[in-house]
Amino acid sequence: MVEFWDDFFSYLASVGYMKLVRIFWFYFLFEFFRYIFLETLALFSWKFKQRVNRKALQEARKLMWDESPLVSIIVPGKNEGKHIFKLAQSLREQTYKNYELIIIDDGSDDATPEICKNLERNGMITLFLRNDVRGGKASAANLGLRFAKGKYIIHLDADCSYDRDAIENIIIPFYFDQRIGAVGGNVMVRNYKESLCTTLQAIEYTDTISVGRIVTSHLGIYRVISGAFGAFRSDVMQRIGGWDIGPGLDGDITVKIRKLGYKIHFEPLAVCLTSVPNTFRKLIKQRLRWDKSLIRFRLRKHRDVFLPNQSFKLGNFVSFAENVTYNLVLNIFWYGYLFDMIFNYSSQLKYIIIMNFFLYTLNNYFKFILFSPFRERKHAPIHYFLIYIPLMVFYFGYLLRLVRSVAYLSEIFFKASYKDPWNPAKTSRHAKEMGL
Amino acid sequence: MENNNQDTLYQVVDNVLEFQGHRFFVATQGTSLKTEQALIYDAFIIEAGDLNYTLHILKKIRGHLNPELYLKPIFLLKGNEKHDPLVNNLTDGVIYSLDQVKLVIPVMEQIYLKVADLSFTRSLSFEAQMIDKILNMMYSRDKKELEPIPYFNSGIGYSFPEASINFGYRDEWQVLDILDIAEKEGLFASEYLDRIYLCNNCSGGFLSYREVCPHCASTNASSEDLIHHFPCAFIGPISDFKNEIDNQLNCPKCNKMLRHIGVDYDKPSIIYTCGKCNSKFQDISVRAKCMMCTKDAEVQYLIPRDVKMYRMTKKGETSAQTGYISTSKDIEEFIGTVKLETFKTMIKYEIERLKQTDYNSNIAGIYLKNAGELYSMIGASSQRALLRDLVEIVRRNIRSSDLITFQNVNIVLVSLNEIPTKVADNILKEIINIISRLIKQNFKNFDVDIRYSVHQLNTRLSHELQIQQVTKDFVD
């Protein structure tokens, strides 16, 4: 063992800069550039812009409070009754009070109807709607949208909870820029201490949502408003006819709004806490569903974004291109990189794997610590997560990459998303026939 | 009017028919009946032409509180009128002409024979009075069961003829309370038949059930099917899909024509729209409007009541014969006494306590044998005053830690703890003397029969058995 480490450090000392870049070209060429260099620049630029727009933001806040528009909060779901009381209670704590809460039960077969009817009678729910026959999340959300009276629509997941000022903060951006059509909330992990799986997801969410979406939003390429917490202009939703069949309807609706020429904004101050899957089995199932939507929506349904026809918009093109490049293309490249290492550095592979681990761990620590001041709740202690960060190499670099690969392949070759029981077969069949 | 046939010789003068020494009052249409005069007739014959008139006369007789009147036989002189269940239940027979009057004589005699078995006492409360009346009516008619009949003229939808006749349309619900008390007292056994719902304001049973808007309670609500269009996930009321040109349904989101339910669309539920407040809802409320007091109430706040068939028990029969004076509730209310159940519990604890000590405790009973006779001489308020005095006398002669309870209106039970039985016996003697003197002073012509019994509590016997032994002394 000691001999191995002696050999490893000898090898490390003998590797020059050029060879290091040659060995880790994938990292330096794509990942360091995008996730460290570009994100750091974007974050500082965003902070600067925040400072410049300070007064305009205050003005937007004032305008919003002066108008105090009716906000329709719609919560579609199946068998979510157990969460509804807590949700309604957490919404009662909101600083913004002028809202109507519409719960849509998509064919629940538990006590959800009884619970919700009771809450409706007690005035904790404004309107409870139920489809006796399950129609899928999109139709449930559309039912809520059909009877919503608010100027803004907020889509929530029943099992989430919200900061006291979350509703207020997610509406303000609409008053800051009239061209904003939808605003995404900042989704954080509530059950991060529940298991190793949830802790790793919490670190991932901090990176990809709390910080990553500040960057994409600032660069104008923000592309998915989480179903857990998103706000939409009601008139825009009427124009696009609400949600289309999922899975992946969150990303789909964001694209539809972008296509109309509206901006999509991420609001880090609008904080939502969600419970993430607590086992790796559940996580893989969730991510397989999410990842298939890249093929289905970006490359099939909305492929026109790439085509220089009438609906071409540079912002949408860049957003799609970045998404497809960094998720699909580089995912394929990574396997090429793997082959490169196996064939060209087979004798040094054991040292390269260890160096790779240290490199990415260093990268992750750097990002986690350096970007902390930019994220909401910057003063919250981060020490709990520090010991888990080395595991992110396996979680993000290997596990999720593998899951992505399986999802892409199954969607490209078998259109697997149309068979996903998450959506009723009767609607998926039509979506498949129509290429939706 | 006269009939000279030897077998059916009768004469009707001024609505009075005399036959074989019996006097019948023949109530023909429009004839008034004064209750004070009614007592002189042996029976009544009501000409059944107009139902309202028949019910009016029936109510006057059967609804009266005087047993000499309400127990009198009533017969119906019937044509081809519609069958009215209340009338049929409260009359004792039907004749089709006055010539048939001889046919009712055996019935009358049978009724009077049964009435002779009854003792008429004055009851301590309204409830007891009503129970006594029902028992008397049933006993005199040899009727064992009091069956509710669905009746459109009843304020609660069901009529218990012998009981309901005592109440008006608006307070007929009290019949249910009274019969429940009678059942609890063991005078009736019951069998469940139905459940009714009464107004939570006036207890009326004439309710109009309506579907209303849950927000403004307006009945002006209309429903529409919701349509889910599968291909585009649009969902909305059917009116969103209709057009003004033809009967086709077109999706407002994707403009596609709906073709086949279950294939490209379905109807997952319905939605109501209120015509008054314009609110949307899926669960319409049901409210009940009381047609008596006009209160509109949510159905969950209506008062549910069981409708039962009551069967008179042996105790009920005996109570009819001896007169029913008070319900348990009537005698539980006297200050200085405890409920019988509490008394029993305390005796039980006392027996347990005695097992640990060398003390001697006693249980005693005071029995007013002819209490019914006494109570029938005086009104309800005087009865209460008498019972109050009786309790006060007992209380003055025992220690404050000793308990008094009424087993019934005739028997008072007393606990006398931690004293020798001989002393307890002396105390009881003194109490009996005082009570006797009190009754003699106040009711000069009444010869009171008052007894007592004292038992030392036995730690080897149950409290129930020892209380029974005290009572048994009086029966023997």
Please give a structural write-up:
- The complex is a heterodimer of chains A (436) and B (476).
- Chain A has 436 residues and is an alpha/beta fold.
- Chain A folds into 2 domains: 2-44 and 312-434, no CATH class; 67-279, Spore Coat Polysaccharide Biosynthesis Protein SpsA, Chain A.
- Chain A has 17 helices and 8 strands.
- Chain A has an 8-stranded mixed β-sheet with strand order 3-2-1-4-7-6-8-5, with helices on both faces.
- The longest helix of chain A is centred in the C-terminal third of the chain and has 31 residues, at 314-344.
- Chain A starts with a helix and ends with a helix.
- The mean pLDDT of chain A is 90.
- Chain B is of the alpha+beta class.
- Chain B has 3 domains: 2-115, Rossmann fold; 214-283, no CATH class; 325-475, 2-Layer Sandwich (Alpha-Beta Plaits).
- In chain B, 34% of the residues lie in helices and 25% in strands.
- Chain B contains 16 helices and 23 strands.
- Chain B has a 7-stranded mixed β-sheet, with helices on one face.
- In chain B, strand 6 (74-78), helix 4 and strand 7 form a beta-alpha-beta unit.
- In chain B, helix 14 (380-397) runs antiparallel to helix 15.
